[in-house]
Amino acid sequence: MASPFLSASDLASAVARLLGGRRTIRGALAASLRALPLRLRRHSSLMVPRPLGKQLHCLSGVLWVTQEGDSNDVILTVGESYFVERAARMLVSALQDAKFELSPYCSRPDAGQAGLVRRF
């Protein structure tokens, strides 16, 4: 009968797979908290199912951001950011070819911070 316990080498292999090739848990966590760079072609969209606490930062192009149940849509241009305060699904659409970052687990920016968005 096989042992229900992992050997040291099996455990090391399992941890390495969980870390995604990084040497430490801290390194894996840091990588998971980085902004995710994304691109959208003109007239294409991306659905973000649980966006609460995330931040969008427009690097190029123009983005239209809308959330279920919220009549206040947002337009982002180069250098502008949007902090998501609602859990409802969010649709990010490119009005022009666009490159942007989606950052997870972001703290709320200061209300007076430059580069925040216009609502319409």
What is the name of the CATH topology of the largest domain?
Answer: Jelly Rolls
**What structural class is derived from the secondary structure elements?**
alpha+beta
Q: Number of DSSP strands? A: 9
**CATH class membership of the largest domain:** Mainly Beta
| SSE topology string | HHEEEEEEEEE
On the 0 to 100 scale, the average pLDDT is 76
- Count helical runs: 2
Please estimate the helix content: 10-25%
Give the CATH architecture of the largest domain.
Answer: Sandwich
**Distance from first to last alpha carbon:** 67 Å
Rg, Å, rounded = 19 Å
**Multimeric state of these chains?**
single chain
Low-pLDDT parts are: 109-116
**Overall 3D geometry?**
globular
Q: What count of domains describes the coordinates? A: 2
Strand adjacency order, main sheet: 2-7-4-5-9
